[in-house]
From TrEMBL:
Residues 13-121 form the SnoaL-like domain. Keywords: Isomerase. InterPro entries: NTF2-like_dom_sf (IPR032710), SnoaL-like (IPR037401). It comes from the Bacteria. Pfam families: SnoaL_2. This is Ketosteroid isomerase. One of its GO terms (molecular function) is isomerase activity. Gene3D superfamilies: 3.10.450.50.
Length: 137
């Protein structure tokens, strides 16, 4: 048996996704622990600086780059799954269009979030990196 998860974990992650969808990046960063360890999927365009440690690193290394390089970046079909050990698994899709190439992606994605005391302490992305790599070329 795993460690029983906090009942508020789903709400924390859901709030982050809602804030991201509205473009409210400060609110999306708010539930992150000061020492969050954020990892993009191996071979993803933004995995070049893994791991990102701290909300500012996530902001500058991931979110700002997405905003600068993509015409839009939407998260769709989000389903949240409570996992033991204070983890939340999100299954979703990326729907995005690259500014420079005009190419789009529609990729199956999963995010694994780890929380402690209502704060996100770790993030791991799993996605179709081939689509993202092709879109930026």
């Amino acid at each position: 048996m795993g460690v029983v998860s906090s009942p508020g974990n789903l709400a924390v992650v859901d709030g982050l996704y809602q804030a991201f969808a509205k473009g409210d990046i400060p609110a999306a960063l708010a539930p992150m622990d000061a020492d969050i360890v954020w990892n993009e999927a191996e071979s993803f365009p933004y995995a070049d600086k893994n791991p990102y440690v701290g909300p500012e690193a996530v902001l500058n290394g991931v979110f700002a780059r997405i905003g600068a390089e993509w015409e839009y970046w939407n998260l769709t079909d989000i389903e949240l799954h409570d996992v033991s050990g204070n983890k939340v698994l999100a299954t979703l899709r990326y729907d995005a269009k690259h500014k420079a190439t005009g190419k789009t992606i529609d990729s199956q994605t999963a995010h694994l979030w780890t929380l402690r005391d209502g704060k996100i302490i770790a993030f791991q992305q799993f996605t179709d990196t081939k689509q993202a790599a092709a879109a930026v070329r």
